[in-house]
Amino acid sequence: MAALCGLLLCAQALPQPSQPSQPYLVGVGMSDITGEAAEVGMMGYAVLGQKTAGIHQRLRARAFIVEDATTHQSVVIVITDTGLVTQAIHQAVLQRLAKLYVTPHGQLYDERNVLISATHTHAGPGGYSHYALYNITILGFQPKTFQAIVDGIVEAIVRAHQRKAPGDILLNQGKLTNASRNRSATAFRLNPAADRAAFPQEIDPLMSVLTFRQNGRPIGALSLFPTHGTSMTNRNTLISGDNKGYAAYHWEHDEAGVRYLRDKTPFVAAFAQTNPGDMSPNLNLKPGSGPTEDEFENTRLIGLRQADKAMALSNQSKQSLQGPVDHRMRYVDMSQVQVSGAYTPDGQLHHTCPAALGSTFAAGSEEDGPGPGIAKEGQSNPFLKAVGGLLFWPSETLRQCHGVKEVVIPVGEMKPYPWAPEVLPLQVLRIGQLYLATLPGEPTIMSGWRIRRTLAHTLGVDIKQVLVVGYSNAYTEYITTPEEYSAQDYEGGSTLFGPYTLPAYQQELDRLAHDMASGQPGVDISALHPRDLSAHQLNFQPGVLMDLPALGKQFGQVLQDAASHYKRGDTVQVRFQSGHPKNELHRNGTFLEVQRLVDGQWRMVADDGDWATRYHWVRTFGAESAAEISWAIPTDTPPGSYRIVHHGDAKSLAGTITPFSGTSRVFQVSQD
Questions:
Q1: Which of 367, 430, 555, 576 could form a disulfide with 183 if both were Cys (CB 3.0 to 4.6 A apart)?
Q2: Which helix (H) or strand (E) holds 617?
Q3: For residue 211, is it left (φ>0), alpha (ψ between -120 and 50) or beta?
Q4: pLDDT in tens, 255-303
Q5: What is the dihedral of CA 208, 213, 219, 224, to 10 degrees?
Q6: Which helix (H) or strand (E) is 185 found in, with range?
Q7: How much is the pLDDT for 8?
Q8: CA 601, CA 643: separation in Å to the nearest integer?
Q9: What are the backbone angles phi and psi of residue 338, rounded to the nearest 5°?
Q10: DSSP secondary-structure letter at 583?
Q11: Pairing between strand 319-320 and 325-333?
């Protein structure tokens, strides 16, 4: 019995108090949000030719619900393996929740208490915004990918709601210093020395981990740490959650034993962003470089470092969150905020501007995803400025408002609708001693720190009790400090609302914090609302006309078979005649199975969501295509008989979609 208890303690990876306090109702949930796995532009690098061509790891939404057991106030936190959370996604999810959860007192989950934030992977399909700026390189709005993300987020929330039960939340914080580098150090150094002293290594090393428990048993964990989702480069075409996706997979699958396709109540481990605007995971400050020169291995290592630190902090958690659950939210038109001198560096009154991108936006981030070479960070570009003037005719008033920025694309002045949203949701959520402030963009570490400092003062708490959560509920590019903006690096050129974007966010979030601290209910959120552009979407990406097998072949037929024998550590490769993955996304399913023969029955041991597998789709000729499936045999694989199975779907000229499967030869795996 003593040995069994010891094993259980290790499995839970947390010290177990004999009678844990359960001040909250908590629930966790997860679902698949993987969109179209072939021939859809990928979101993040804005490279026109970078299109999905298979899956390395599936993308998931992970939801956490906390309800105050006394007041019944709730907050919902959802972390998505996506590049962005667009306003379109936010609106669609809220519309679905409004139909699912209605109480006599109103909606249970709405924009006031639902936080949806992205991990910012650059290795997922795009086309899920209603604004042109984020759909241009994707060739328009992609309904199937959009719907997959919305459906998965709603499913994750529903599952978390269904699992809601008395529980508690532990908080621990620590420092992780080997998973990020400052990619815009010259701009960072323009901030006052007193502010820079908060980050002596020019990175934000703070990791915060919330461990959710029911009856003393961990059911999930939420880690917050800033580093970009750019370990995978703009040359990659396989869907991946990038380093944070791997971190979640490692904790869930490798450590907690989650099997995604069969576990009904899995342990849920999410890895969220805070203020990573200038934090790169490429430690050598070159795309795909650091810790190694292999982008897949870098993804694994940077993810593993986050997972290991998060698990260690969870193991050592002793502080239990106590106190109310609360929230404040309002919509703000960020194109016309008058900013008090209390929030500006010079102490003077200023205002924000209609959204615009500068010439250095075209430079991209040289450390993560450089642009086409027509612009350089921090350098004037009269050519682009002239081209922007000829093509888009930015007004002189707009140019003056944006100061040192060379306005190229007047995003906010485009007709008939702006190319990016300007009416944006801002939130402050409270869970006991912890406060979360949301931002619809990518704040630099200094931007995040200034907001945290302002809100901590208003709320009367330590700055570590306030966290900024970027990429939340909408997306509008970068948020730099006014000093960083003056350098006009990539981040400054992409700060949409002008040099006082950050002070405006400070001011508006501080208003919410004042309301929360004083117990005021806050403003009427119906007074200002973002536009709904769902009826105005275009898609220029051709769909699937039909699928054809090669002459004399059948769908699912093996074109290149496995060998008869492999050792652990080898890679199995099988090629199948296939159909287009757009025909059926296999969400909450798989395009492949690795099966092992056990007691006369074939049992799945891996699928297309596993790190060891890769599903690569190839268009071979016209309507013909193939699926190339590989399995890097893990070193702990039991010896035995195995086979690879491919699941696909073929579309006829009449539009009928027919599922098919194909199976490789049986092969043996041995220890050596």
A1: 367
A2: strand 613-621
A3: beta
A4: 999 999 999 999 999 999 999 999 999 999 999 999 999 999 999 999 9
A5: -10
A6: helix 185-188
A7: 36
A8: 12
A9: -90, 120
A10: G
A11: unpaired
Is the CA virtual torsion 555, 559, 563, 567 positive or negative?
A: negative
How far from 311 is each of 20, 270, 295, 306, CA to CA, in Å?
A: 20, 12, 24, 9
User: Residue 462 corresponds to which amino acid?
Assistant: D
**Residue labelled with tokens 């061509």:** 53
pTM over 0.70: yes
How far apart are the C-alpha atoms of 207 and 184, rounded to whole Å?
A: 21
Please give the distance of CA 549 from its chain centroid, rounded to a whole number. 37
What is the per-residue DSSP string for 326-351?
A: EEEEEEEETTS-EE-GGGSTTS--EE
Report the candidate in 672, 665, 614, 619 with the shortest Cα–Cα distance to residue 643: 665
- Give the CA angle between residues 93, 96, 101 to the nearest 5°: 115
**How many whole angstroms separate alpha carbon 438 and alpha carbon 577?**
47
For residue 276, what are the CA distances in angstroms to 188, 328, 411? 13, 24, 23
Q: Give the Cβ contact number of residue 310 at 10 Å.
A: 29
Concatenate the DSSP letters of all residues of 432-501 into one string: TTEEEEE-SSEE-HHHHHHHHHHHHHHHTS-GGGEEEE-SBSS--BEE--HHHHTTT-HHHHTBTT-TTH
Q: Give yes or no for a contact between 567 and 670, defined as CB atoms under 8 angstroms apart.
A: yes
Q: Looking up tokens 């931007």, which residue turns up?
A: 447
Segment 108-114 long-range contacts (CB within 8 Å, at least 24 positions apart): 108/74, 109/74, 109/76, 109/157, 111/329, 111/425, 111/473, 111/525, 112/327, 112/328, 112/329, 112/427, 112/525, 113/73, 113/74, 113/75, 113/76, 113/327, 113/329, 113/429, 114/75, 114/76, 114/78, 114/157
How far apart, in whole angstroms, are the C-alpha atoms of residue 189 and residue 585?
Answer: 46
Dihedral sign, Cα of residue 67, residue 102, residue 532, residue 582? positive
Instruction: Read off φ and ψ for residue 99, nearest 5 degrees.
Output: -85, -25
Number of neighbouring beta carbons within 10 Å of residue 301? 21
Confidence of residue 390 (pLDDT cuts 50, 70, 90): low
- CA atoms in the 13 A half-sphere facing the CB of 663: 9
Question: What would the pLDDT profile of 534-584 be if each residue is shown by its tens digit?
Answer: 999 999 988 899 999 999 999 999 999 999 999 999 999 999 999 999 999
Tell which residue, 44, 142, 53, 157, has the closest CA to residue 97. 157
DSSP letters for 22-40: --EEEEEEEEE-----EEE
Q: Among 94, 100, 273, which residue's Cα sits nearest to residue 180?
A: 273
In this structure, the strands spanning 51-55 and 38-43 are: antiparallel
Mean predicted confidence (pLDDT) in 487-501:
97
Can you tell me whether residue 569 is helix, strand or coil?
coil
Output the DSSP codes for 198-263. Answer: T-TTSS--EEEEEEEEETTEEEEEEEE----B-SS-TT--SB--HHHHHHHHIIIIIIT---TTT-
> Are the beta carbons of 469 and 427 closer than 8 angstroms?
no
Length of the chain: 672
The residue assigned the tokens 């508690």 is 168
**Joined tokens for residue 46:** 């804005």
Are the C-beta atoms of residues 517 and 462 closer than 8 Å to each other?
no
Partners of residue 172 on adjacent β-strands = 209
Extract the tokens encoding 657.
């979609």
Cα–Cα distances (Å) from 42 to 34, 121, 138, 375, 490, in that order, read: 12, 10, 7, 22, 20
**Residues annotated as part of the active site:** 280
71: Cβ–Cβ under 8 A, 6 or more apart, which residues?
Answer: 324, 325
